Amino acid sequence: MNFDLLLCGGHVIDPANGIDQTQDLFIRDGKIAGFDDTTRKIAVDKTLDARGLVVCPGLVDLQARLREPGEEHKATLDTELVAAVAGGITTICCPPDTDPVIDTPAMVQMIRQRAEEIGLTQVLPVGALTRSLAGEKLTDMAALRDAGCLALGNAENTIDNTLVMRRAMQYATTFDLTVFLNALDPWLKGNGCVHEGEVSTRLGLPVIPEAAETVALARELALIETTGARGHITQLSCARSVTQLADAKERDLAVTAAVSAHHLHLSEQDIGEFDTRCHVIPPLRSLTDREGLRQGLADGVIEAICSDHQPHGFDAKLAPFSESAPGIAGLETLLSLTLKLVDEDVLKLPKAVAALTANPARILGIDTGQLSIGARADLCVFDPNKQWQVDAEKLLSNGTNTPFDGWSLPGVVRWTLVSGEVVFAHDKK
């Protein structure tokens, strides 16, 4: 029996199937065909030497803005999907706050078709909960589901009316759709841009207090409990939120959560003297909050790590801090920032890989993020021992807005495979 491709002698980590060992991996017809030890002779068309490298499922990013359609001056699917595979990401969820909004089947199909034409990362649009994200009239959720949406959300556009949110959760539950929730109270958020604390006082910047998240989260958890909805909190930023979430899980609520990679490494202290690259929503919070998020991830209260990728043009970060565009370009640093947690003894390597693969796939209810026999061969092969220095100007994303510019990070992606085809290869030279 011939195989199309052999990844030879790699350290295979597949948390979904409990695999954590050195072995060969075989691919045929774009799918995982089998495993073997490194001694048996089997006919293959092509071999990749993965000795000393980690072979894991392709990364699944639960939140990344790709700017198309509507903001092509910032980035396009063409540019950002190239950046995604360079970071080992093979599946991306894009929020519905595009222009036009993803609130019709036509928009879902357009984005999916564009991604398929490019032939790199799989893009899964998150459909809008309400029409035009206005928080008033519900979308045709059945039609969005039939068009390919696995989840619905309202992005950063809060549904102020609690009755509308309750009905949205009930409706989504009818169609077995996960509801993506952004826990941020708009009234407490106001025009804030930084955490309420020492740095905001020193710099005189408008604040987003911790309560903006915890109050909103309390509402969403109460509605999940009363409706039986399956909810996913897209981003946590506060230690108290982790406590709330842990309590909800103890009560068997169907709720999951993610945290952005930058919230696990940065705090309000990194803003320094108005460094706009650190302007993000939700804001970077205290060191105590950062440690609480790390502990929540280690304890399994938080299941997934996302990039929250938001590419901006150079000018967007030149304005005064409060007027600058929030967001970080994070596709190409997602894996390395997660591996840095391993180096810092926050997570073991299999659990870190799970937070980027099996767990987000399970949240979406998709069969990627794992290496079962017959599964699509979406793979990330990386060198965990090699360091690289972030150079914003050399990132493949159209966005160069990263506060990690100049950082030395672990983990270099050697190959990224989609359906068994190598779509990215790192030039070792």
Explain the overall architecture.
With 429 residues, the protein is α/β, with parallel strands linked by helices. It folds into two domains: 3-55 and 377-425, Urease, subunit C, domain 1 (Roll), CATH 2.30.40.10; 56-364, TIM Barrel, CATH 3.20.20. Helices cover 28% and strands 24% of the residues. The chain contains twelve helices and 19 strands. The chain has helices spanning 77-86, 105-118, 141-147, 162-174, 186-189, 198-203, 210-227, 239-250, 287-299, 334-343, 349-356, 358-364, and strands at 3-14, 19-28, 31-36, 44-49, 54-57, 59-61, 89-94, 122-125, 127-128, 151-153, 178-181, 194-195, 207-208, 231-233, 255-260, 304-306, 379-389, 408-418, 421-425. The strands form four sheets. Strands 1, 2, 3, 4, 5, 17, 18 and 19 form an eight-stranded mixed sheet that branches. A six-stranded parallel sheet has the order 9-10-11-14-15-16, sandwiched between helices. A three-stranded parallel sheet has the order 6-7-8. Strand 7 (89-94), helix 2 (105-118) and strand 8 form a beta-alpha-beta unit. The mean pLDDT is 96.
Tags for this entry?
2 domains; alpha/beta; 24% strand; 429 residues; 28% helix; 12 helices; single chain; 19 strands; TIM Barrel
How is the CATH topology of the largest domain named?
TIM Barrel
Taking the alpha carbons of the first and last residues, their distance comes to 35 Å
Q: List unreliable stretches of 5+ residues.
A: none
Mean pLDDT level? 96
Number of domains: 2
Coarse shape: globular
Please tell me how large the radius of gyration is.
Answer: 21 Å
CATH superfamily of the largest domain: Metal-dependent hydrolases
CATH architecture of the largest domain: Alpha-Beta Barrel
CATH class category label of the largest domain: Alpha Beta
Secondary structure: number of strands: 19
Count the DSSP helices: 12
Structural class: alpha/beta
Main beta sheet, described? 8 strands, mixed
Strand content: 15-25%
